[in-house]
Specification:
eight-stranded antiparallel β-barrel
Length: about 150
């Protein structure tokens, strides 16, 4: 009886922690590091969050290449605005298998928006985000910060 109580006392918190970690890895919510597609150097820290209607969005929380970077190539009211705080992905709908579709992504390097899809990979430690123009898609892999 004492051994069972002892095992239960230590096993239960480990089990709860395991489920919590597993749930986090099935969700894109959290902080992610993005990389420059030409140099491979870290570029931004973005935060993915659950938005309206159960969709997911991402906003820039830190610019690693220049602290006060602005979006010089963005269009409309985004033009010249600070990248920090800017929403760069929205409308990603979960398909239930770690993949997301129906979203839009803003490429800060050229100020253009693209249809987007995304997928969690490597047990939730990587997030592959694709921007598509017609049948042609470019992919960028983000790595989880937390």
């Amino acid at each position: 009886m004492r051994i069972q109580s002892f095992i239960s006392l230590f096993a239960l918190p480990l089990l709860v922690a395991s489920f919590a970690a597993s749930a986090q890895n099935n969700s894109p919510v959290g902080r992610w590091k993005t990389y420059d597609e030409d140099t491979g150097k870290p570029r931004l820290i973005v935060e993915v969050y659950e938005a309206k209607g159960g969709t997911y969005a991402a906003k820039v929380v830190e610019t690693l290449f220049a602290p006060n970077a602005t979006c010089t190539d963005c269009k409309g009211d985004q033009k010249g605005k600070p990248m920090k705080g800017m929403i760069i992905m929205w409308g990603q709908k979960p398909k239930g298998d770690g993949t997301f579709e129906g979203g839009t992504v803003l490429k800060l390097a050229n100020g253009k928006t693209y249809k987007s899809k995304a997928a969690l990979q490597a047990g939730g430690s990587k997030f592959e985000v694709s921007g598509c123009m017609g049948p042609i898609c470019k992919h960028q892999t983000w790595t989880r910060e937390n």
